[in-house]
Amino acid sequence: MPFVYEMPEIGEGVVEGEIVAWMVKEGDFIERDAPLCEVMTDKATVEISSPTTGRVLKLHGQPGDIIKVHTPLAEIDENGAGAATPGPAPAPPAAPVTAPPMGVPSRAKPGVPAKAPPSVRRHAREEGVDLHRVSGTGPGGRITHDDVQQFIDGGATPMLPPALPQVRPSGTEERVRLIGMRRRIAEQMAYSVHTAAHFTYVEEVDGTKLVALREALKPKAAARGVNLSYIPFVMKACSVVFREFPNLNAVMDEEAFELVVKGDHNIGISTDTPDGLVVPVVKNVEQKSILHIAAELQALLERTRTGKASLDDLTGGTFTITSVGGIGGVLATPIIKVPEVAILGFNTIRDRAVVIDGEITIRKMFYLSPSFDHRIIDGALGARFTAALKAILEEPESLLLELA
Predict the structure, then answer these.
(1) Which has the minimum average pLDDT: 77-86, 216-225, 288-297, 301-310?
(2) Cβ-count burial of 89 within 10 angstroms (0-12 exposed, 13-18 middle, 19+ buried)?
(3) Residues tagged active-site
(4) What is the DSSP string of 186-234?
(5) Which candidate, 261, 235, 278, places its Cα nearest to that of 339?
(6) pLDDT 10s digits, 29-74
(7) Rounded to whole angstroms, how far apart are CA atoms 219 and 230?
(8) What one-character-per-residue DSSP string does 33-63 give?
(9) What is the pTM of this model?
(10) CA 67 → CA 38, 60, 273, distances in Å?
């Protein structure tokens, strides 16, 4: 009889999980503690390892399927615990390729899927790295984010960019199943829109002094290993304004229908990652200087983009900032991350001709486009909050006095 591995309990209160990706296929040989699959729950994405050694006879479910705890996940023939049947020898490479030292060498064969989770595959694809040229140091030779980065840092030549996509024939269509992080994002966005009564207020801001202040402080921050972006200034400005408008730094208790005003200013930053939109949170912004915020944000974003963020990194937010200024666009109407009651859109800074004291001059202009939950935040309150934020960002030197 094969060993039937049931979906384990992977967190307190977790009763089911969604299969994100299988690391093996039926017929494969798998060793004990080697990666079996990735499963996403409401709390986190976890890797499930094989509890035994043998040959995989059956996998229960496809990526996107929901599996209940204590129901069959995989069937493994422990009597088939022998060496995997070798495939045909791969053709030699056209030219020798030198890769940097990677610890335990376990390079994948061409034509055989490299052992790597979806987030690492996306990371490699974005960096132009062929995973077959990367040696994995993870369990069972699995390739990690660090392996990919070390391969890049070692000076390896990236593979050629992929060919331009071809025009699809008329009348064809493709169905893409929404699974994993994409499904969670879709569910959260739909829930947010159908729960909070959204309205967006747009204000124009003269960021000339903000740009100058950042440029003056960048070398000092860089000397301490910190990349100083505009976001820490905006985060600190929001924290200062929350003193006057505390109801903006709050969450809604839908069950009790109560507004919970928070003393901690835990500000999330919407972050584009290979797995989709993720919102890591910088905790207690009210207690930190701009440099402190910048250093913490830099480390937090690095963990998030490489799939190493902890559950604590991604929870506990009281307010969110979103910015796509690096991509472009004039403004956006962001969706609130409920149960929070507001979100701030920080948009591209551009040179524009404006009239000041009757004279046309070039200034660094941008838009703030916050969205509010109209159940809690009236239009006038949202406008006053935005005006107060504008005043600070147009005279940002005062933020340097906020040392804590």
Answers:
(1) 77-86
(2) exposed
(3) 374, 378
(4) HHHHHHHHHHS-EEE--EEEE-HHHHHHHHHHHHHHHHTT----SHHHH
(5) 261
(6) 999 999 999 898 876 778 899 999 999 999 999 998 999 999 999 9
(7) 14
(8) TSEEEEEE-SS-EEEEE-SS-EEEEEE---T
(9) 0.73
(10) 12, 8, 26
